[in-house]
Amino acid sequence: MARPPCPQQPGVPLHVVLRGDPADPGACLEGLGAAADCPVHAYVLMGTHIHVLLTPARVQGAMPLIRALGAREFDASPVYTRRHVLACMRYIELNPVRAGLVRHPARYRWSSYRANALGEADALITPHALYCALGRSAEERCAAYRRSFRAAATSRARSPAC
């Protein structure tokens, strides 16, 4: 049975997983930026897939991006709960660590971690309002975001069921 299409509601963040081999990550990022018809909050390019957290401004707003990147297949999940937005960003940016490619997400070049956690310029990233609420200045937001990674790791260490 075919999977029903994912609702793409304006203003509701969407976690999109695009399957396919981003053979040239630099070109893929350029294509992602050119095709993004909606703000992108987090991303990671992996060997066989791409994760993107974005917020469509209109119904089906993510479709131009999905088509432009030529994904063989994709999956998209709305992030309805406010507390899950930052958790989804962490999930996306920790993909290279979980895959064993790097020991720390800052060491992975094809991710938004350095923009969100270290304040490095990334023209593709538009901070989500919940990220902006982490602090009054860019430095405060970055520091709070980095702390959230440590807190998440600590809670997982205490609770193996997570």
Description of the molecule:
It is globular, with a radius of gyration of 15 Å. 40% of the residues lie in helices and 15% in strands. The model is unreliable at 157-162 (pLDDT under 50). With 162 residues, the chain is an alpha+beta fold.
Layout of helices and strands:
Elements: E1 14-19, H1 25-35, E2 40-45, E3 49-54, H2 63-68, E4 73-78, H3 82-93, H4 95-98, H5 113-118, H6 129-132, H7 138-158
Antiparallel strand pairs: 1-3, 1-4, 2-3
Summarize the structure.
With 162 residues, the protein is of the alpha+beta class. It has helices at residues 25-35, 63-68, 82-93, 95-98, 113-118, 129-132, 138-158; strands at residues 14-19, 40-45, 49-54, 73-78. A hairpin with a 3-residue loop joins strand 2 and strand 3 (49-54).
**CATH topology title:** Alpha-Beta Plaits
The average pLDDT score comes to 82
Question: What form results from the Cα inertia axes?
Answer: globular
Strand arrangement within the widest β-sheet reads: 2-3-1-4
Q: Roughly how much helix do the residues carry, as a percent range?
A: 25-40%
Task: Tell me the series of helices and strands, N- to C-terminal.
Answer: EHEEHEHHHHH
